[in-house]
Specification:
Elements: E1 5-14, H1 26-41, E2 49-51, H2 53-60, E3 70-78, E4 83-87, H3 88-127
Parallel strand pairs: 2-4
Antiparallel strand pairs: 1-3, 3-4
């Protein structure tokens, strides 16, 4: 991702209009509703909305006839106008993972400094 994020939001998208479609088309209609909702609220074209495969799997999880009634998503609009949409739960997991990685990096930095000092002390004592 070379483009910077311009706008990040969390939405709860109602999918009740999918119930108006024939039973065998409800999940497909729900995916279209997600795309339309995000395009309208993020002020972009529907062609520029990218839906994460995990989000699509979540919509189709119970089959074509029973999509969820609502879905919570995280949307990120980039500089070039494209919008990335993913499940909110995945976004939270990603944030937690990034926080853990930064904590580990901080711990590594703190633990590395004393060992370097000890090595210098050992070399000085061996010279004498």
């Amino acid at each position: 991702m070379s483009a910077l994020a311009v706008l990040e939001r969390v939405y709860t998208i109602p999918l009740r209009k999918a119930k108006a479609a024939p039973r065998y088309k409800r999940a497909k209609k729900a995916a279209k509703l997600v795309r339309e909702f995000i395009a309208r609220h993020m002020k972009t074209n529907e062609d520029l909305v990218w839906i994460d495969p995990r989000l699509n799997e979540f919509i189709w999880q119970r089959g074509a006839e029973k999509p969820p009634a609502r879905i919570r998503v995280f949307a990120r609009k980039l500089d070039d106008g494209t919008v990335e949409v993913k499940l909110y739960e995945d976004y939270v997991k990603d944030q937690q993972k990034m926080a853990e990685e930064t904590e580990k990096e901080k711990e590594e930095i703190l633990t590395e400094q004393p060992t370097e000092v000890k090595k210098e002390e050992d070399t000085e004592s061996s010279k004498e």
